[in-house]
Automatic annotation (TrEMBL):
Belongs to the EXORDIUM family. InterPro entries: EXORDIUM-like (IPR006766). It is found in: Secreted, Extracellular space, Apoplast. The chain crosses the membrane at residues 12-37. Keywords: Apoplast, Membrane, Secreted, Signal, Transmembrane, Transmembrane helix. The lineage of its organism: Eukaryota, Viridiplantae, Streptophyta, Embryophyta, Tracheophyta. This is Uncharacterized protein. It comes from Kingdonia uniflora. GO terms for cellular component: apoplast. The keyword Signal applies.
């Protein structure tokens, strides 16, 4: 995500400017990377794909100068703590848990979510220690009664997290060093600038509000509000003719759309939890992080107006990675610091 000053709102993924870029790409032919991508044209089935040691990686740029700024990264076992804010049904939770549990899974079919995470693991701190390979689902918290209402600001999000870690009944454990707190809002919750500028963001809590400095991310379910913006390509904006959505692999447009945003934020939380570690750019208030560099790229050939080559299930759903227990997901690529390219496990020669 691209951060902002503490008093301002950090933005990520889908912005108004991204929409305008897409319009230009479709109707004027402008090239270049954007948060959006045109639906893939010739969808390739799983049986047609042949994976190997690909030498072609998309999204490269000699102008990208991703640097380490000496801040901490998450080199010890990472524990994810979801906070389910609002109304969540069991199937929706199972989809998201299925993705989170797939990050460190070793039994998934290639190309897998765990192989996607292996690119994130390439990042090191000043001692040479890598991002942890162990990402586990920890204690969860339900906030089904909207403790802070159905309209949240950036600061009230921190108050929701405070309520979760200080609750008198089953509080979330406080783990500043290796805990990541995921505030997931249901489709009837509005968050400041949601659907207008952001689909999700990450930052850290302020001790003056929460009592601790905890890395956290917020991601919203856009299924009812703006699926064409935040659940693309499973939904498309109605004001652009000719675009056709693809089928969501888990049958829930809003939640399937959340998966890539959640992945984006977790990758950046691991490599830049306090906004002083891995990023490009000279201004830490507006860093370009490892997932920002690859927004809209899901496969080989991705970039500009094209998502890249993805796969189809037998029933026509689109995905690019396998998870545990047969689940499938569509997850954007991240920046590979060794190759200096965007890369994903479904890369093809």
């Amino acid at each position: 995500m691209r951060h902002s000053q503490p008093g301002r709102y950090p933005a990520h993924v889908i912005t108004i400017s991204s929409v305008m870029v897409l319009v230009l790409v479709l109707f004027v032919g402008v090239s270049g990377s954007s948060s959006w991508a045109h639906p893939h044209i010739n969808l390739t089935t799983t049986s047609d794909l042949r994976f190997g040691g690909s030498k072609k990686y998309e999204g490269s740029s000699e102008f990208v100068h991703l640097r380490y700024h000496m801040g901490p990264i998450l080199t010890t076992s990472i524990t994810l703590h979801p906070i389910w804010y609002g109304r969540w049904c069991k199937p929706q939770k199972r989809i998201i848990r299925g993705f989170l549990n797939s990050i460190s899974a070793v039994d998934s079919k290639h190309p897998s979510v765990s192989q996607w995470w292996s690119t994130v693991q390439l990042y090191t701190d000043q001692t040479g220690d890598n991002i942890s390979s162990n990402v586990q689902l920890g204690v969860e918290k339900n906030d089904r009664f909207y403790s802070h209402g159905k309209s949240l600001t950036r600061l009230s999000i921190q108050h929701v997290i405070k309520s979760a870690v200080t609750s008198s009944t089953k509080p979330l454990p406080v783990n500043p060093k290796s805990g990541l707190y995921l505030l997931l809002t249901s489709d009837d919750v509005h968050v400041e600038d949601f659907c207008g500028q952001v689909c999700g963001f990450h930052y850290f809590t302020f001790p003056s509000i929460v009592g601790y400095t905890l890395p956290y991310a917020w991601v919203g379910n856009s299924g009812k509000r703006c699926p064409g913006l935040c659940a693309y390509p499973f939904a498309v904006p109605g004001f652009i003719p000719g675009l056709k959505p693809v089928m969501a692999p888990n049958g829930d447009v809003g939640v399937d759309g959340m998966i890539s945003v959640i992945a984006h934020e977790i990758a950046e939380l691991a490599t830049n939890p306090l906004v002083n570690a891995w990023y490009a750019g000279e201004d830490p208030s507006f860093p370009t992080e490892i997932a920002d560099l690859c927004e809209g790229i899901y496969g080989t050939g991705g970039g500009g107006s094209y998502t890249g080559q993805m796969m189809e299930t037998e029933d026509g759903a689109t995905f690019n990675m396998h998870g545990s227990f047969g689940r499938k997901f569509l997850v954007q690529w991240v920046w590979n610091p060794v190759l200096n390219y965007c890369y994903g496990p479904n890369a093809m020669d």
